[in-house]
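ok posting inputs for the nicotinamide-adenine-dinucleotide job
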Amino acid sequence: MSLKYNVVIIGAGNIGAFFDNPRSEDILTHAHGFSMDERFNLLGFVDINKEKGQKAAELWGCNYYGSIDGAKAGNKIDIVCIAVPDELHFEYLKKAMDMDVKLIFCEKPITKNLKDAEKLLEIYSSKNAKIVVNYSRRFVDEFYGIKNDYNGGKYGKFLTGTGYYGKGIMHNGSHMVDLLGVILGEVKENKALSGTNDFYADDPTVSVYLKFDEGGVILSAADCRAYTVFEADLLFEKKRIKILNSGFSIESYDIVDSPIFKGYKSLEQTGLFDTSLKMAMMNAVRNIGNHLEGNEEIKCSFFDAYKTLKICSSIRKGI
Ligand SMILES: NC(=O)c1ccc[n+]([C@@H]2O[C@H](COP(=O)([O-])OP(=O)(O)OC[C@H]3O[C@@H](n4cnc5c(N)ncnc54)[C@H](O)[C@@H]3O)[C@@H](O)[C@H]2O)c1
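and the output
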């Protein structure tokens, strides 16, 4: 099969290039994801840091460009990946939407604030651009399995839940808000409880109560200066699901007669499995390829990410 779509990655950092390498089993970088799918041709990296850009280009066998204009010279770019720090997503999304590319793959969050996201939404709607946003758990089948079992009635009603996250409500909390939205449906209300600036001065990690159609989830701000934790514990009438280790593993529990207290019901662990989160980047790239070929809906669109950002912005305003 001939290589079809030319890809340029803006940002030769961890998620762009260095979380893994071409020999890694796990697919954790944009470069690895696109290198694995023969429908794409990785042209190279754009980075203001020449040393990093060149190192990434060497690792992934492609080119280094000092700017987007440099990458455009003599090349037809089909896909632009935006893997620069959060505060630069706005600027690069605007630029990329002006470039007449087939699709933009952008890291989360789409912007640092709602005002900028709304400006982009206007451009996005007027240009009918195609944007995929990397809320990575949207590219993991096991989370849709939970959603489908819940929606199909297997778990009964959702009762209540708890969770932990750190590194800012926009930066990392938006991953949790997005994931809970996928599983439990729309966030109907939110009530911020308290906040701590553990990572960014302008992006506090906020403890918050999120209300869904059935039940609510209390997310606790876990200060990332001590360690990183991303977990959710969801209690349904007939099942308990624990999303652990950033979503790399899931524990499930069923209801049994209490072995200790006669007549009581209790929970017993009946499942523990790894998810395919370590393959999420490959799945995202596959989704991009399938979408471009007209075979699949985008699994995390600009609008999905905008809705998540809007909730997170409202949470941030609440403290
Ligand atoms: N989806 C996920 O699970 C996930 C995981 C990690 C990071 N991220 C997101 O990816 C983005 C990048 O994170 P990272 O950890 O790779 O950061 P990083 O700091 O490792 O890499 C960022 C790169 O951007 C380059 N850069 C800075 N300014 C630039 C500019 N003006 N033009 C071009 N390049 C520039 C830097 O030199 C650096 O190489 C962040 O927005 C982060 O939120 C997402």
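notes: The mean pLDDT is 97. The CA atoms of residues 7 and 79 lie 5 Å apart.
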